[in-house]
Amino acid sequence: MGRERDVVQQPLALTAEELVAVNPYNPDILHELENYVNDQVSSQKYSLDANLCLLRFYQFEPERMSTQIVARILIKALMAMPAPDFSLCLFLIPERVQMEDQFKTLIVLSHYLETGRFRQFWDEAAKNRHIVEAVPGFEQAIQAYAVHVLSLTYQKVPRSVLAEAINIEGLSLDKFLEHQVANSGWILEKGHGRGQLIALPQNEFNHPELKKSTGDAIPLEHVTRIFPILG
Amino acid sequence: MASYDYDYDDAQVGYDESSATNRSSSAAGQDLRYDPNFVPDSVKSFVVHLYRYIREKNVYEIHQMYESSFQTLSERLFKDTPWPSVDAVAHYVDNDHVFCLLYREMWFRHLYARLSPTLKQRIDSWDNYCSLFQVVLHGVVNMQLPNQWLWDMVDEFVYQFQSFCQYRAKMKNKTEQEIALLRQYDQAWNVYGVLNFLEALVEKSMIIQILEHEKEGLEQFTATDGYDYKGGSNVLKVLGYFSMVGLLRVHCLLGDYSTGLKRLLPIDISQQGVYTIVIGSHITTIYHYGFANLMLRRYVDAIREFNKILLYIYKTKQYHQKSPQYEQILKKNEQMYALLAICLSLCPQVKLVEETVNSQLREKYGEKMIRMQRYDDEAFAIYDELFSYACPKFITPTAPNFDEPLVNYNQDAYRLQLKLFLYEVKQQQLLSGVRTFLKVYSTISLGKLANYMEVDESTLRTILMTYKHKTHAVDSDGKVISNADVDFYIDDDIIVVVESKPTKQYGDYFLRQIVKLEGVINDMDRIKLE
């Protein structure tokens, strides 16, 4: 069993999540959860539930709050976009804490991502390297989010638009594209004399004809209602 | 029962601080002529009978006494005084420990509803809940109580917690004595204590497993309305069940929406259940479910459930006219229309809303909803107004630092949730403009649309991506769900608009008609022709 092997390899990881499941309202696990945040940062894992649980304890016992840990939770939440985790965390963080500079910066970064303004995002992130570089995988996670939004929006996206969104240019972008073509089904095309076009993989959002018609499907539970009559 | 209609009574004055002074002045004015030891004959008869019916496990009679006799007596004899003290009635009921705890629970509930509790009374009520829940959790209770009563216990427990937090957060007018009491009894209504009691009731009752077993046909719970027909006690099980709704509500009050929804998960709200038997529980469940989904940007889920319950209330409210909960039902009804107006302004999926509900909505908020589409300052003011009117009474669950100057912080939690909500609205402010154009074109070039919207092309691209991001929610499994009313895709620099065809649910329609026809045929069979 894979799970059991995981227990041996990463006792801390599973314990933290199990701890939350068993003790959602027991502040004795606060330190374990703080360690687990650091663990999520260093081993590129993520658990929203564990982090919300920790923020809950901070909300109940503000004197125990570590703003450094809160900042890490928020950065991890940004990396979880398009999920709304960042707002979910902010709902639990007192306003006076949100007024601190490092949090203001993160809120601005989140705002740019939420409104699709990737150029501003990357500019702002570059000005605050010390914050975001502390968390491994940050860039890649945001790039994945950018690709997600682009794939919802575009069938074919101009190279320049992609470059801006993922903040990769020139030779590095060629390499990135090469990788995506080989692994994710991207197709490079020639645009109308204005550079490259990239056909993104099809999904039901950029190719609506793929959308399954839900109109004619009836869930089994609904049909069971008439079983007594049919019998 | 009385608790529900006073549930949000502070909310009527909004977040106005005057409510604090109103309450404390009437607290001081608790009737001096009240003699806690005087037991009128009618009260004696009430406790004796209630005690007997509880011992006989006569749920029907208990329900009658609880729902109507208690109400009638309160109205007649205790309009503005508390009921006789528990010590004065104890010897009529063999000093039965559990009965006395139940009596005190009702005693406090009546006090909270009619008068205004002093700090000492708030603390005593907390103690009483601790004793009562401990008795239940230790499994020594063998009574059967009506669902309504069990719901009222959980509901009142959460209400008194919320009320205590609001009370404690208004520090400015506290007397020396009150502050001393607050410091001395710092465990009263402690947030961990509240959450752990609710959680313990869920755990100990095994309700989650029971509901799972029921799905597999191994056990009955919903089918018997939570009662045990073999004579076992329903108290722990049903308290555990309602505690899941209680947890949803507490988490919403704290701004922890996803945890709240998680606690509700074992209850399948797409079906009827024990939670729909008691109207107060039904409304509380859906109100908080919808609100949490609104805050999570899952507008379609919120719209669906608001629509269903608003239709239900519309059709059934006449039956509740005489109920003590009637006013509260109407109040929550209005609040949910306000929330529905917000949802539909952010996500105009009007086709999800049934015709009756829609026409009610237009009547109440039609004009405001048009103004909300403009996304100017006035529109934000309306979002603010509707949110403030309809949101839960958020709480700060912590005691103040008594060593620092004491200030009121009762609005902090509300202000934060409002601010973050309006922030979200602002992020979506340009989307309604895009919508308007997308509705009238089947294809349009980016350049042309940018021109119409008076923005440059790259800004338009960001607006279109925002539209996609905001209309596509991600569920807890990471699956992308479209909430979009109008959809589109971009091919290089051409926007292609996708017509959203409303998919008619014929299957469901036929299923319903089949059930209906069967009912009619059954009715006809039953008619005996002379």
TrEMBL record, chain A:
Keywords: Cytoplasm, Initiation factor, Protein biosynthesis. It holds the Pfam family CSN8_PSD8_EIF3K. It comes from the Eukaryota. The keyword Cytoplasm applies. GO terms for molecular function: ribosome binding; RNA binding; translation initiation factor activity. It is found in: Cytoplasm. GO terms for biological process: formation of cytoplasmic translation initiation complex; regulation of translational initiation. One of its GO terms (cellular component) is eukaryotic 43S preinitiation complex. Residues 46-204 form the PCI domain. Gene3D superfamilies: ARM repeat, domain 1, Winged helix-like DNA-binding domain superfamily/Winged helix DNA-binding domain. The keyword Translocase does not apply. Component of the eukaryotic translation initiation factor 3 (eIF-3) complex. Belongs to the eIF-3 subunit K family. Component of the eukaryotic translation initiation factor 3 (eIF-3) complex, which is involved in protein synthesis of a specialized repertoire of mRNAs and, together with other initiation factors, stimulates binding of mRNA and methionyl-tRNAi to the 40S ribosome. The eIF-3 complex specifically targets and initiates translation of a subset of mRNAs involved in cell proliferation. This is Eukaryotic translation initiation factor 3 subunit K. It comes from Ziziphus jujuba var. spinosa.
From TrEMBL, chain B:
PANTHER family: EUKARYOTIC TRANSLATION INITIATION FACTOR 3, EUKARYOTIC TRANSLATION INITIATION FACTOR 3 SUBUNIT L. Component of the eukaryotic translation initiation factor 3 (eIF-3) complex. Keywords: Cytoplasm, Initiation factor, Protein biosynthesis. Pfam families: Paf67. Coiled coil: none annotated. InterPro entries: eIF3l, PCI_dom. It comes from Ziziphus jujuba. Residues 305-504 form the PCI domain. Belongs to the eIF-3 subunit L family. Its main location: cytoplasm. The gene is LOC107420660. Component of the eukaryotic translation initiation factor 3 (eIF-3) complex, which is involved in protein synthesis of a specialized repertoire of mRNAs and, together with other initiation factors, stimulates binding of mRNA and methionyl-tRNAi to the 40S ribosome. The eIF-3 complex specifically targets and initiates translation of a subset of mRNAs involved in cell proliferation. This is Eukaryotic translation initiation factor 3 subunit L. PROSITE patterns: PCI. It is found in: Cytoplasm.
